[in-house]
Write a structure and sequence with these properties.
binds 6-diazenyl-5-OXO-L-norleucine; three-stranded antiparallel β-sheet
């Protein structure tokens, strides 16, 4: 395997991604099953912890997969990147009057900063920020849920993608934190739709069911300056794609974002379903899934796999 000779070039053409994925799977498989499956959403606690899958989709049109890469899982917070894309299209730069763009340094569902900062969530990738983004999407698109579904199906080139109503219901039944956050934000006037409508949309976006293959393909527009790699159509303009990638780097893994940049060195977004998607600008997107989470809510084996990927291939932004 020619991994070591090509690792500093950063070129996809010289990379043997199939061999890289095999080596990563062998290295991190002992970690799959470690950590804790998210059990605060009861439906997620039923997912077997020992799953591991990974997919790499390149802008050249190649796809590499290993393990459970085609098994669909609950993407949870990864959906915040899709809704942020839609909200930026809807509001443009005015979005930043309603949500910040600094790392929170706190847990994704923390309430503490919101009071001091008068209902303006620190960034769009923590839960409160995602509620504001969901509110913008609801205000702008009459069939917001349908529009989101159409968006991800198109991006992933998979018309079979859907939301799992059982996951959405399970989260709604236990979503006390999200309800607290959304009510609090609404009290500052930073939600315009009824709290129930915002939460309903938010729980459904989190319940999107996608595989690593779907996710890797669906993030390619962020590796391609906002263009769809298949059609050349503009999904989002290049400047916004750049900003979304920056937000993923600084806020996409919450209070572990610094550690994640240190270990992996790529814009990335995690979800408590155990998925993590990362982007190598100009080159590829990749996704990994393993449900066991570390204490910050990021996939334990998934983070290790991404660390191995950028180390073996030299494909990080640093
Ligand atoms: O709102 C929640 O708590 C979940 N639906 C999503 C949280 C999440 O995925 C955080 N990611 N690491």
């Amino acid at each position: 395997m020619s991994i070591d000779s090509s690792r500093r070039s950063g070129s996809t053409r010289q990379q043997d991604f199939a061999a890289v994925l095999e080596r990563i799977a062998a290295d991190v498989r002992p970690l799959a099953g470690q950590g804790r499956v998210a059990d605060y959403i009861p439906r997620l606690a039923q997912v077997p912890a020992d799953r591991f899958g990974m997919a790499v989709a390149t802008l050249d049109g190649d796809l590499f997969r290993i393990g459970d890469a085609d098994e669909a899982f609950s993407i949870q917070s990864i959906s915040k990147v899709f809704t942020l894309t839609m909200a930026l299209e809807a509001l443009g730069g005015d979005l930043w009057q309603r949500v910040g763009r600094e790392p929170s340094g706190s847990a994704f569902n923390s309430l503490v900063q919101l009071e001091r900062e008068r209902g303006i969530p620190r960034n769009p990738l923590i839960n409160g920020g995602a509620h504001v983004v969901a509110d913008v999407v609801l205000s702008h698109y009459p069939d917001a849920r349908g529009r989101l579904l159409a968006f991800v199906r198109e991006r992933a080139d998979n018309p079979g993608i859907d939301m799992d109503p059982e996951v959405a219901r399970s989260e709604r039944e236990t979503g006390y934190r999200n309800a607290a956050l959304a009510n609090f934000i609404r009290s500052f006037g930073n939600l315009h739709n009824p709290v129930d409508a915002v939460l309903d949309f938010y729980f459904h976006q989190c319940a999107l069911h996608m595989s690593c293959t779907d996710l890797a393909r669906s993030f390619l527009y962020l590796a391609n300056s906002g263009l769809c790699q298949r059609s050349g159509e503009t999904v989002i303009d290049a400047e916004r794609a750049k900003r979304i990638n920056a937000l993923m780097l600084t806020c996409g893994t919450y209070d572990a974002a610094g550690e994640f940049a240190f270990r992996v060195g790529l814009p990335a977004k995690s979800g408590v379903g155990g998925g993590i998607v990362a982007v190598v600008p100009g080159v590829l997107a990749l996704a990994v899934w393993s449900p066991g989470l570390d204490e910050k809510g990021n996939s334990l084996a998934g983070a290790a796999a991404l660390d191995r990927f950028t180390t073996l291939t030299g494909l990080s932004i640093f």
